[in-house]
Design a protein that fits this description.
alpha/beta, single chain, 2 domains, Rossmann fold, four-stranded parallel β-sheet
């Protein structure tokens, strides 16, 4: 929420210490718990989060993941009551499984229902690739191979080249959520190719945030993860521009709202 002089003192929000710079609303899959933890690792001072989960999906199969987004708009409307500055659908597969343009459709539907600027993880990851100059990438995921094939096609249909993709072929949500960072680090390092501009670690439900800095130093190229990109986009849209250290080049660089993002914010006030 942006302050209008005439509204000063009218709302309890003005007296709150929670989110005095920005309030981020997140919708996330009920199967995960890294979503909120990762936010608190990287959020600058004065930036608060409100979260609501869509129903837990039964597993990570392609069939189950096709239904991840069914309650997203409805859940975003619940979050909108707390007047966040931005709402993000923090789920990678839930915004790419239905093909090119589905992330944009979700954004339009969420914004129409809430009157608040919205984004998705797939929207954010592609914006992050463009920000970092990544056109050719290596990608690793915990997903089953059919899901990897869908994500690869989604990215290539959007103009990116996936040079190599490796997954862990996991269908159990609980195993996926408890993968140690060492497994993710080694998988990302193994999937890299000399020709790639960067490495992408897909999935918001894994503990990938803490390996980014080490991978960038060891590989000599940018590394993007799902939660890192999603929160980078949320902070950018909310006008929070300061560098964030320790979680890769993407967050370390200053962020500025584009004129279009600024216009969307003003229209929602």
């Amino acid at each position: 929420m942006e302050l209008r002089r005439a509204d000063l003192g009218k709302h309890p929000l003005w007296y709150s210490n929670q989110g005095w710079r920005a309030r981020i609303g997140i919708v996330y899959p009920g199967a995960g718990f890294h979503h909120i933890g990762d936010f608190h690792k990287i959020a600058p001072k004065g930036v608060a989060v409100g979260a609501a989960a869509v129903p837990r999906h039964k597993d990570e199969s392609a069939e189950a993941m096709m239904h991840l987004d069914e309650k997203v708009v409805e859940t975003a409307m619940i979050l909108a009551a707390s007047q966040p500055d931005v709402i993000g659908w923090i789920c990678t597969a839930g915004s790419f499984m239905k093909g090119k343009g589905h992330d944009e459709r979700l954004v339009r539907e969420m914004e129409a229902a809430t009157g608040i600027p919205c984004t998705t993880t797939s929207t954010a990851m592609m914006a992050a690739f463009r920000q970092l100059g990544i056109k050719k990438l290596s990608m690793c995921t915990p997903y089953p191979n059919p899901v990897n094939d869908i994500e690869k096609k989604f990215l290539e249909d959007n103009g990116f080249k996936v040079l190599r993709c490796e997954g862990l072929d996991l269908v159990d949500n609980n195993i996926l959520a408890h993968l140690p960072p060492s497994v993710i680090y080694r998988l990302a390092k193994a999937v890299d190719t000399p020709e790639s501009d960067g490495v992408f670690i897909s999935c918001t439900g894994i503990d990938a945030l803490d390996v980014i800095e080490a991978l960038e130093q060891d590989l000599g190229k940018p590394v993007v993860t799902s939660n890192q990109a999603a929160y980078w986009m949320c902070f950018k849209m909310a006008g929070i521009g300061e560098p964030i250290e320790g979680y890769g080049r993407l967050l370390r660089e200053p962020r500025y709202r584009t004129p279009g993002e600024q216009e969307r914010r003003l229209m929602a006030v």
